[in-house]
DNA sequence: CTGAAAGCGCTTACAG
DNA sequence: CTGAAAGCGCTTACAG
């Protein structure tokens, strides 16, 4: 089933079929011809060969979304869903690739020949350059603020700052940071910790006590006891899972939450809401992020204007009983 | 950077380059020539054009993995990671696509021209047929037992049965099933419930009381009260999130776990271990599943023998304090 | 042992 | 308004 079939069946040339199906308004064709070709193509169930098209034009309708190797949260899931839907409206299909190990990225994008690559974790500069040279639209991600329109900024420091500010507002003066026991998360954890640290300095408080907390009660209990000896009363956890472990540790150590120690997480996972006490957490406006990302991809493809600068307002604190 | 460049630089024809780079052992070439071509290709950083290759051969090195629209758990995440690594050893790249809405699948696979499509939720028969006709290796999934080697069976009923058997073993005679409030999960929830139902019948117990439980305390509390009036003492929850909500409901209703009511979940998410009381749950042997899937894909591509029949032993009960 | 040539299906200058 | 032809980069019979 090729464009030649559609041409023969419609009584026109392949050229005309191509013009019609690609909606080339700059070339003059009778409406009757257009209708006929479209109808024939539909009747025959014709789909242009993506391989041939990619070979010819050097690009495809595929958007490659490269994910880092950290655990998917429901957030990423929803982000991709939004993105897929929005880009589908422009005839683009989103394909997700989960990066693992240090296998070279170029093998992949060369194999896919996407029109755009969207990295949800930072790219190596060499990779980004190579892709751009190959004519691929590149949208990268940074964990910090970044004004460039082709960079998606998820300012992790803001998350940490939000957590710390909230604890300070609740009257806590000695804070701790509960870090995750997972190397893949280190880059994120470090940025969030930097946010907590910065906020402490801003409020004239001592630097936060940093402890790695495994996702089990014993580890959390140890951490809690150490913190108590240091006078800690407020804990910012890397995410809700770590925060729930901390809550369990506090329970095991018979400490009252939030009167003796307050805890704040990040993500607002379902378990946070039904924890005892319900967990205060930071919620991300995934929809707003997805909208920005979509606009950034379309702009990089010159299919739309550059997106308006990203709103800083993508994080919200959800106060609950744990603080 | 094309194969012509490599040919010129190596002083051979494009034919020879193609033979060497595709490891055609059936054609006789001097070792010296092979070495030279390989070295030149490496030096020039040559990567064959996937588009041209796909156009020529009608297939690519891409394996398209189609995911359903339900929330990713860490399980899916790890499954894909295993799969990607194993298939990469055969020169195949895994690309993930998350299906949403009812957008037609054929648009996607025609655009990607993968050599294989792996569905992690069941395919429509028409879709599977169309893909096979296009020469694509298809590996499907079913929620039930299935002996076919090109079908990945995740017998959801076994999960429900495992939960129910455990509760019965702990002495419970009146069971409830806590269903999720998410349409996308209905197919899974129904199969798991069928497993619980079947187990109850097998043990000569009344059918389980089925209640939808939202992920909040109020909803869970209502469900718990209703169950108590029906004499329920054992609850099988769709997954750990629902189970944690049930635990919260029981706490709100001042019922003791496990003495008055026992709860068992599915997935073993991190929060399950640190819940109060720690949540009994069902754990899936993702590694075994990934190994089977890999073998199934390779077999469908005729790159390996059909995999041995799937072990039924992919689920394990993790007993903790909640039962 | 190696090379010239055809052809995969498409798009697009160019010539009617 | 429409068609014949070139060419994207590859693989593979076929002819030396």
From TrEMBL, chains A, B:
InterPro entries: HTH_LacI (IPR000843), LacI/GalR-like_sensor (IPR046335), Lambda_DNA-bd_dom_sf (IPR010982), Peripla_BP_I (IPR028082)
Organism domain of life: Bacteria
Keyword DNA-binding set for record: yes
SUPFAM superfamilies from the UniProt entry: lambda repressor-like DNA-binding domains (SSF47413), Periplasmic binding protein-like I (SSF53822)
Limits of the HTH lacI-type domain: 1-57
Cited SMART domains: HTH_LACI (SM00354)
Pfam entry (one): Peripla_BP_3
Keywords recorded for this protein, A-Z: DNA-binding, Transcription, Transcription regulation
Keyword Transcription: yes
Protein name: LacI family transcriptional regulator
Protein source organism: Cellulomonas xiejunii
Lineage, broadest ranks: Bacteria, Bacillati, Actinomycetota, Actinomycetes, Micrococcales
